[in-house]
Design a protein that fits this description.
Length: 131
């Protein structure tokens, strides 16, 4: 059985001030809800789990998400525009799922997800120390 891939969404991410936050849902939670709706009818929904997390510690760069899979690079994406990101994240998910090691060429990233705040982090199995 193939292990599941996970798309983590920071549910506390918000670009609004604290006053505005108290009166409506966070942008991170809105993004999570958008993704949940789209994910239901997505062809590869059995291969990707979408999870909300309390915080990804990138509060100065909302909305924040992370892709993770066994023996694959993890991607951390920040500063995502709420209105355009859900569909683009599922497009990127397709590339991530189809990749053996999680490497996605930069020119394949959907344009809306290309920002200066993207990190690719090696998995434990990829990053073995040189002795």
């Amino acid at each position: 059985m193939m292990s599941k891939h996970i798309l983590y969404i920071c549910k506390s991410c918000n670009t609004q001030s604290n006053e505005e936050k108290n009166h409506k849902q966070s942008e991170g939670l809105c993004l999570f809800n958008q993704l949940q709706l789209l994910h239901q009818n997505w062809s590869k929904n059995s291969e990707l789990e979408i999870q909300s997390v309390d915080c990804l510690w990138a509060c100065g760069h909302p909305c924040v998400v992370a892709f993770s899979g066994a023996d694959k690079f993890t991607y951390l994406l920040m500063d995502l525009p709420l209105s355009e990101s859900a569909v683009a994240l599922l497009q990127l998910s397709e590339l991530y799922l189809d990749s053996n090691d999680g490497v996605i060429p930069w020119n394949k990233f959907p344009k809306v997800l290309k920002s200066d705040t993207v990190a690719r982090i090696p998995s434990f199995s990829i990053s073995k120390p040189n002795l």
